[in-house]
Amino acid sequence: MTQMNGIQAKQLDQINTQEGKALCATSAPGWFIRPRSPLGDAFSPQRPGNDVKFFTTGADYFKDVAQAIKNAKKSIFITGWQVNYEVRLDSETRLWDCLYHATRKADAPDVYLMPWLSPKAAVDTGDLETMLAAFVLNAGLKQRKVWCFPAIQQSDMGNLGTFFSHHQKMVVIDNEIAYVGGIDLAYGRDDDNNFRLAAGTRTAQELYNPCIPPLFEIEGHKQYPYMTTAELIGAALMEGDGISKVQRKIAWAKDNKMFNAMRSSGKEFGEWLDEKGDSVLRFFGAGAADTVGGVIQIAEFVHNQLTPENIEAWKRTLRQWKASFDALLQELNAGLNTAETRLDAETTTFEHTQQGLATLRREAQAINAAISGWLLQAEQHKALTPQDAQKLQAQANNIQERIERWITQAEQQIPRAKVASAKFKAHLAKLKSHLEIWKNQVASKLDQLSSELLAWSEQVRKSGQALSKELITRGTELVNLWVEQTGVGAFYAWLNNTPTSIISAKAIEEFDTIATPFALYLHSALDRLAEAQKAQPYSYLANPNTRLLPKGGMMLDSKTQPRMPWHDVHVRLEGASVYDLSRNFISRWNSLQARFDGKKQYMPPLLVGVLTFFDDNLEPIPFKAHYIPQPQKVPNKGAITAQVLRSAPLKLLHEEHKGAQRSGSDSLPAAQSRQANCLQATLQAISSAQHFIYIENQFFQSVYGKSIPEELNATPGPMTSLMNVKGLPGYDRYAARLRLDKLEENPANLHKIDYHELADMIRTREAETFTNGLLQVLSNQSAMEALRAMQEPQAHLLNPLNEALAERIERAIEMGENFHVYMVLPVHPEGPLNAINLMTQVHLTMQSLSLGEHSLIKRIQRAMAIKGYMDRGQTEEQANRQIELKDKDGVFLYEEEQWQQYLTLLNLRTWEMLGGRPITEQIYVHSKLLIADDRVAIIGSANINDRSQLGDRDSELAVVLSGGTAVTTQIDGRCAYPVCQPVQQLRVALWRKLFALEASDPGVMVAPASHLASTLMQPAAPSTWQAIQTQANENAKAYEEVFPHIPRNEASIWPTWPQMSTARATPNLPAEQVDVFMPFEQGFWKHPRHSQRPTEIKGFITALPVNWTRQEYNDSTFNLTVLAQIEPRPSAGTSATALASHFPTAPDNEAT
């Protein structure tokens, strides 16, 4: 009796002919999850009666969904991790254009958009801009038709909740057509079977490759065809071109010269704009950073923000000190009024001690009064002048000095009398700690950076239009530091599409307290204004040629830099299960409405007085919820059985329950545990598969035991240079000057570095290579410290999918079955390969696949070795001992086993000629797909990692698809087995795409792997995986011969790291002399090394290098709670099936 499907035991009896010949066996596995399981209640039951259409390219999906949106008559639901309003869906037709078309029809649908509300500092998906553009769609309509609510995270992850998301990707039209899968309506996803690296017609943010630095700068005077986020905010709040028609006069900066000019002209906005023409600097202004007006505007913002910021910081601190003094005074009064006062042996007279304590009390009362007076005076200043701020700051400094003297006196008095109770000592220690933190971490930075910025802003204000080059240059340096070190600075840069790549942990924390409330405040204002918009949508937004300004005004150089091709899978459903997908959207939407129902959203305090509204209509009022009624059941259509799956945190489920109650909908009792449906269904599919499993996924991170490099004392690689200042060339020369030795004592001593001296070095461009590297290390260390401080990190990954695959293959080995697993993964996660979180992801993936103690490959090899020994007569106990033996090189004997018999691991890659030289780039695998035996497909948004699978972090959405008309085929080349024809057609279409059999563009340099066409219908045949592996290995070898920077076996995470570290041993070596670069560095593109063309490549498949990073330890100590989740760690060897018992048990409720 063996666990066959992860839920219940099955017994299969062999059927033989009369002659004793075994017949081919088939079974009916349970692909669909039950209503209740240890991993939570099923979100929906399995429903027959669905018609499906699969999309294996983003281009085909985008065209289909664009037409469906335009034809919608009743409702449109859109949710996604990333939803970009300007994404091109069909040629130059944007998502916004499709929605505009739909809402202008006589039978216009109601439109609901729910993008994830991204945290902006950590990741910005463009949700704010989409929300703004969505509300503008209501302009000119007689009745409001568009609602948008960015989905704030609803995870169970406590302090780390900011880092988790709503990851679902879904569109539902009229409760009749639904789209679900891995493709967001976002930049970069529009790809076809050709996987071109050339830009083609793509530009701006559609020219997408986050793995390399953009080199093409859109010069300031050429930025007018672009909009900034700030301009889009203005367009939404001002009702497009018709500001004066509805009296929404809003100024986003106190002295914005454009608004002043408009107001003083006495003309309507439309007339004024017509006079100025399209060349006018619009709102905050695209290209403002390169104009005199832009510099003046930045100076105004800095001045208006920093002048009160110092005082706000003092306010917070003095209130903190006052609370400590209140507590200390309470203890002093209690001690002096009691008759139980006792003296220490060293005290000569009671009166002396009592007198000293009474003096302390009087001075504490006086300081308290001074603090209260200061706070009252500070609150009376509504708009601080520089003189006001200087006066208040001088008074606050005086209070600080008095507190320091008082603490010294108090510490002298403590040993003299036992009146100084434990509480008194604790309060005194707390006050002293607050004072030290203020002096060391806060005041010093305000005194240096802020005073310099304020002085600069005053000079700019006084200079009028006559700005010197020196003043502009000095401002650039100071503003860069301000952006990197403060939340408001980072916010200003983000608002104007110029975010910084380096930001301190303090700035990230401050930014988060600004950006999310700011977005919610804007939503509240826009939601109210949307009910009465009269003018037409903003003309620049309505023009498809006007694009959002790429971050920093930078984009890829299409002549020399490649886009990153995108591979993904999506599905369209019609029929019974569309009801469940509608229900998912409505439940989530209503949960957000209930959360904010009746609540006011305020402008973040740090922005009050900086971004000023002078229209009373925009003052905060209670939010008026807009609930959506539950959908109607959908009639059957088609023969496929489907079940909708979710990963849903308990917090989300509780808020959905509250939303159902508030909206008047019938609801089940409140959930008792999270939903981990995606994990449950995947475990069942893996365990139930009989012949083969085909997986495409963006990640593969799962339980793997110990990290083998950690055990082998692996060499430090590039990770050390990114996390340890001592690894920087020039460290010895500058360590003492910058007080870097403090970091050696304790990595948390980031605040003790001499940042003022560092700023001088940056300003004078002294040791530029060293300072750039130092800033990167400090940023990394700061981020790590911040994450660790938020919540205790866990030690291991937890999801059991690696174990499930290993157990299924081990069973095949034990039983002598012909069974194979194919897995297609990206080369590495999207992003530059010098990002520490990405490098940690690579570490986790390689440990899970091949390098970890209980990695998938090592478990296969152990099982094969044990099977071999037992077949030769040894007992299982003897075999287990035998496989632990090592050869003369210290390698376990079992590692000689040829695991490829059971597992094929693939990456995708292509190459082209760009800028006169051959260029290669990975084809990014973003799919979340599992196919088993061509009988079942699981398609959705869930990755193979803890974030997606465990249920209490990211929300996810997927569908299980199976059934239909019975068809049999010889998938192993021998026997006829039942398959689900649409599922089989999906896999065949994917293989044809990956083998380049569908490539048709003459610019594609990869040849079709025509010889693999014969394998398409026989995925379980040994000849199939052998042919695929052979071609993948040949392709990998051909690429490696001419591109030294791409991953390969036995190489560093940066394959050219040995040459790089040698070349850069000399501090301040000019970039053109360094010679060896990785693609994430500008030098790779600015100083190219010409290489040969690869020999003929057939197909887009390459062998995944299973020994990449083998001799290197790349764990950055990144808080794994952000990558995983805190749970009890099961002991080694626990089965994937048994692991389910470690998750909360769901109540006995039926799923809807």
Describe this structure in words.
The chain has 1152 residues and is α+β, with helices and mostly antiparallel strands. Among the domains are: 49-219 and 564-602 and 627-673, Endonuclease Chain A (Endonuclease, Chain A, 2-Layer Sandwich), CATH 3.30.870.10; 298-460, no CATH class; 682-711 and 795-1142, Endonuclease Chain A (Endonuclease, Chain A, 2-Layer Sandwich). Helix content is 41%, strand content 12%. It contains 35 helices and 31 strands. It has a 17-stranded mixed β-sheet that branches. Strands 1-2 form a two-stranded antiparallel ribbon. Helix 3 runs parallel beside helix 13 (505-529). The longest helix has 45 residues, at 292-336. It is globular, with a radius of gyration of 32 Å. The two termini are 33 Å apart. Mean pLDDT is 79; it is low at 1-11, 240-296, 305-309, 338-352, 416-420, 437-447, 612-616 and 1124-1152.
Chain-wise SSE layout:
Elements: E1 2-3, E2 9-10, E3 47-55, H1 58-71, E4 75-80, E5 88-90, E6 93-94, H2 95-103, E7 110-115, H3 127-136, E8 146-148, E9 170-173, E10 177-181, E11 216-217, E12 226-227, H4 229-237, H5 257-265, H6 269-276, H7 292-336, H8 350-380, H9 386-413, H10 422-463, H11 469-485, H12 487-495, H13 505-529, H14 539-542, E13 547-548, E14 554-555, E15 566-567, E16 570-575, H15 578-596, E17 640-648, H16 650-663, E18 675-676, H17 677-688, E19 692-697, H18 708-711, E20 715-716, H19 718-723, H20 731-738, H21 741-745, H22 755-763, H23 768-790, H24 801-815, E21 820-824, H25 836-851, H26 856-871, H27 876-882, E22 903-914, E23 917-922, E24 924-925, E25 928-932, E26 936-940, H28 946-949, E27 956-963, E28 966-969, E29 977-980, H29 981-994, H30 1022-1042, H31 1057-1063, H32 1071-1074, H33 1082-1086, E30 1101-1103, E31 1112-1113, H34 1120-1123, H35 1136-1139
Parallel strand pairs: 4-7, 7-8, 12-13, 15-24, 19-21, 20-31, 21-22
Antiparallel strand pairs: 1-2, 3-16, 3-17, 4-9, 5-6, 9-10, 10-16, 11-14, 17-18, 17-27, 19-25, 22-23, 22-30, 25-26, 26-27, 28-29
Helix pairs in contact: 1-2, 3-4, 3-13, 7-8, 7-9, 7-10, 8-9, 9-10, 10-11, 11-12, 12-13, 15-16, 17-24, 24-26, 26-27
